[in-house]
Design a protein that fits this description.
Blueprint (H helix, E strand, L loop, with lengths): L1 H22 L5 H8 L36 H24 L6 H27 L12 H7 L3 H29 L3 H34 L1
Helix pairs in contact: 3-4, 3-6, 4-7, 6-7
Length: 218
């Protein structure tokens, strides 16, 4: 009888311990499986992923100037000339998109137009903050009027020669002002724009030579 009573008491003690442990969430069918698998118990609030840290993105745009700035004469003259020339090349290239020329020449005209919109926009941002007086281009320019009278291969050749001359002058000027400019943002824009100008120049020379070969072969 004493033996039976002792067994009953022991069973009740073990059952009470199991209930306590299970109530604390450290033991139970699911938690035991997790522990065997090396997985920590997961509560409802832990099931959601914690927010991932956001990595700051670096902007490729040049620094934005302050409300006003004092630009030295060398920078003001560069901005005035560069914006004027950029506007002319952009307008001429836009005109070429409406003319009957090869797809390759139209592709170059599209690229030149878009790149000069970008370069001109960057230059204007600095010029406006430096209170540099700018004039809107008078359209059509004399170059546009001259090329508008041409057709076919001659139109392509004259356009390409114009782009080559303009980009050679612009590339030399931008190269010089990477170091000659006093304002750091002017130097930055010159450095960022130079590879674009050089790419346009190389492509224009390639197409010009191609047009020449095709003309000689025809």
């Amino acid at each position: 009888m004493k033996v039976v009573l002792g067994i009953v008491v022991l069973v009740l003690v073990i059952a009470g311990a199991v209930a306590v442990v299970d109530a604390q969430g450290t033991w139970g069918p699911g938690n035991l499986h997790n522990q065997l698998q090396g997985v920590d118990p997961v509560g409802p609030q832990d099931a959601e992923e914690s927010p991932r840290p956001v990595t700051p993105q670096l902007s490729a745009e040049p620094p934005v100037p302050g409300p006003t700035r004092n630009l030295p004469g060398v920078d003001r003259r560069f901005l005035t000339r560069a914006i004027t020339q950029s506007d002319r090349v952009e307008a001429l290239s836009r005109m070429m998109l409406d003319h009957d020329v090869s797809n390759e020449v139209k592709g170059l005209a599209q690229s030149v137009m878009e790149s000069h919109m970008l370069i001109g926009g960057r230059l204007r941002t600095i010029a406006s903050q430096g209170r540099v007086p700018l004039r809107e281009p008078v359209l059509p320019t004399p170059e546009m009027k001259r090329l508008a009278r041409l057709q076919g291969e001659r139109l392509e050749r004259e356009y390409l020669e114009t782009v080559i001359r303009a980009h050679r002058r612009a590339a030399a000027s931008f190269q010089r002002h990477i170091t000659a400019a006093r304002d750091p943002d002017v130097r930055h824009v010159a450095a960022m724009s130079l590879p674009i100008l050089q790419t346009n120049l190389s492509e224009a020379i390639r197409l010009r030579n191609q047009v020449r070969r095709e003309g000689a072969g025809g």
